[in-house]
Amino acid sequence: MKRFLIFAAIAPPLGFIIAFWIMLQIANWMVGGPGTFDMQQVAMLPTIYLVGLIPALLTAGFDHVLAKREMSYRIALTALFGYFVSYAPLVGAFRLAFMHDPGVLLLGIVGAVPAALCSWLSTERRQPVDA
Known about the structure:
Elements: H1 2-31, H2 45-68, H3 74-87, H4 109-121
């Protein structure tokens, strides 16, 4: 249960921060455009939760299954799943001309980084056994 709460509370706003406050600023800087950093974008937070909650909970379920099976590389696999879950809705838009640019593949980072961080935060810490 703790895992799902961590993913639900942290992943959507972290994805927003990565998309709007990091990736968008880097893209604007690379093309020579003005920065679009604005604290009023925080007003989008309710919408961010509406859009990001289902992918975050799907990723939490995947991470939960991996944790129960005690899989190695769980954090990396969860990040890969988070990448897929955040990128999959864009597949229908591939018919658009701008979607054929290789830079579009970077949009999956919006889900991969929060997935990896939340997976790491939800790792069960084992207490050392006193001998």
